[in-house]
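Input:
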Amino acid sequence: GAVVSQHPSWVICKSGTSVKIECRSLDFQATTMFWYRQFPKQSLMLMATSNEGSKATYEQGVEKDKFLINHASLTLSTLTVTSAHPEDSSFYICSARDGGQGNTGELFFGEGSRLTVL
Amino acid sequence: AQSVTQPDIHITVSEGASLELRCNYSYGATPYLFWYVQSPGQGLQLLLKYFSGDTLVQGIKGFEAEFKRSQSSFNLRKPSVHWSDAAEYFCAVGSKAAGNKLTFGGGTRVLVKP
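Output:
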């Protein structure tokens, strides 16, 4: 099956710094990628939809200036947590849809990135 | 708007016993339905999916799920669980109309007793 890779898998940073998380589709072109956030022992909450070559669409309540999303190519989307604070600590998961297989609805998920802000 | 409910937060089952995880969804049109499994600190692995056709869907690791439109349900089953099945299970619903955005249920944590 299709593979989606996230990097880094975990990161620790100081409060006030910015952190970038990469999401790559390794063997397919992803016209659309989705970013989710998961708090401990909770479900996944969609943060934003990232479309290649255009601005991301953010879900209600998600600060677009806080969580910058860039989808500059068909195989890479990045999420930058700007001026991170401890409350931003979470597990961030990306997923991607294979644009070459039509609109089947199936998404492929990355391994997740755990962010800890001190 | 689409929504998903997993009524059971935790389920404990003995190894070798059968398992059924409940999932109810709310969506006006025909949804795409998915079951994912997540081990601690890991990403999500797709167990199975339903788009159309046969309402009984076979997945990986011996799992199956049945789509029942009249009950708006998509319950996951396994006849005999293994200790390695201990994990968090998420039901999700998506659709073409929603741009393939997935909405996840709250998850069910499965514990397997020896």
